């Protein structure tokens, strides 16, 4: 499976220009297509959801041209699509699926609308029932109440009132409203049940108004589209930044010190999700709002408080509050979010499962989630987070990196609304620094690295110890060192602990046992197995904790911590290394011969540099430190000097 490992972060700050709003982009694309005249759409979101809408419009015969600089020109068809038959694949884009269902059901023609497997589990019966009242001919191609749908020309129908349920998704009402001008006659929509996600209906009304159709709204119950309403291009439409996407960065600013400024949404935004900033302020964050920007910074005392909030008006950004809750004092309760259960995944269940992996206690109900963060002194646990093909799961959980190193599985899920999310995330966050010290066997890298760590006051990872522990554990389990799958299984579940400088395997001090020549040889053997290296990768990265890490091994700079601030490749002549190893063994009262050690070191160098995964080699960006003629103190001083030079450069 594809994954991204996020290092633990020390801070987040900076400025970020947001990608265009998904909700606005997909509405204005559709309305520009239906309008008379050409429309230039500026700053449109370019992501999977908008690509699905653009593809669909093109299949309906609409000309959509990409212009320079994130612009698009849509040639409006004046309410009549040139092609009257199409098979449209709409991925998992609710904003495309629901609105196109309504529009095509009233437009006339034969269409098939389908999506990804999850889209076929997202309910659509309320919209289909409403459209049928207007004469629409829609059949369910597979399971009743769910996509895929088959649509044919509507039966003429004189009704002027249509009822739609509003308590499962507001997109049904939005889709219906956007389609009504195609009827040509006055039509009133009456909402049955409580209307959820209301701010999205405001976006719909504002978008329709931009294209010349004013809807008469009576409370949240009745909406009337007048006879003769028709969309006209306003010429140019500027799409504002995505307020839901802003939530991740505002949260980063609040949790990571800040200030972090997002540009593209602000005081005058059309999107309800800007209210996320109020929720964050309610938790104690410092929020400043400008006309088209919002900035977040940490509370004065650096702490956030848990909240108890009805989130019906911000269903998407509310997910971000669930991961912010990991860092708050006291529980957070997010209420009235039943719609989470029918979105990209069952978001209440998915959130609960993944938050628990990090150490939170979670309680859920049909429409709420209650999160109790782990105790402050315990902090977050490193974990591999599953994302359920849900962009927001991937983005929300990236925030946990402020409390622990973590792995995010299938990070490409962000493509639905924010394809370059992780690049933008990296640009405004500052990870815990690493000094990587790689080198040959017995080059003294362990001694140098642990002393550099002590001098800096940082953590120390002896990555070789993990391979030694794996070899020892395999031996104890009577598993051969060449049995790749079995050894990898052992590596993945190794119960190790390095607390207080003592190396423990399942609670037993094995400091001496893993240094024996036999286990050293075994370590070199198991380290050559790709599945073992893969199993230990995240475990090694999980040692990257504030304020910093010094890691020694063979592939620290090249593979495990490629973004290390300083990389050192330590070596010494093989004769000197054999001499040093000999001295160490004799001091421990272990008999050894220099000739045998020489032979063994030569063999090990050969094996380590020839293996196919992560062979030992000096990376191009590593400093070479030959310790043949150096004392330990001089070698340590040299490494510290390199580290200081990088720190000074900032
Ligand atoms: O109309 C829209 O643009 C949206 C409405 C909301 O859905 P529901 O109305 O289903 O809650 C929201 O979650 C979705 O991301 C976008
Ligand atoms: C619910 C979402 O998407 P959709 O537009 O597919 O409903 C979302 O983006 O969080």
From TrEMBL:
One of its GO terms (cellular component) is cytoplasm. The active site is at residue 316. It is found in: Cytoplasm. It holds the Pfam family EPSP_synthase. Monomer. GO terms for biological process: amino acid biosynthetic process; aromatic amino acid family biosynthetic process; chorismate biosynthetic process; pyrimidine nucleotide metabolic process. It comes from Accumulibacter regalis. This is Multifunctional fusion protein. Belongs to the EPSP synthase family. 3-phosphoshikimate binds at residues 22-23, 27, 169-171, 197, 316, 343. Residues 435-644 form the Cytidylate kinase domain. It catalyses: dCMP + ATP = dCDP + ADP; 3-phosphoshikimate + phosphoenolpyruvate = 5-O-(1-carboxyvinyl)-3-phosphoshikimate + phosphate; CMP + ATP = CDP + ADP. InterPro entries: Cytidylate_kin (IPR003136), Cytidylate_kinase_dom (IPR011994), Enolpyruvate_Tfrase_dom (IPR001986), Enolpyruvate_Tfrase_sf (IPR036968), EPSP_synthase (IPR006264), EPSP_synthase_CS (IPR023193), P-loop_NTPase (IPR027417), RNA3'P_cycl/enolpyr_Trfase_a/b (IPR013792). Pathway: Metabolic intermediate biosynthesis; chorismate biosynthesis; chorismate from D-erythrose 4-phosphate and phosphoenolpyruvate: step 6/7. The keyword ATP-binding applies.
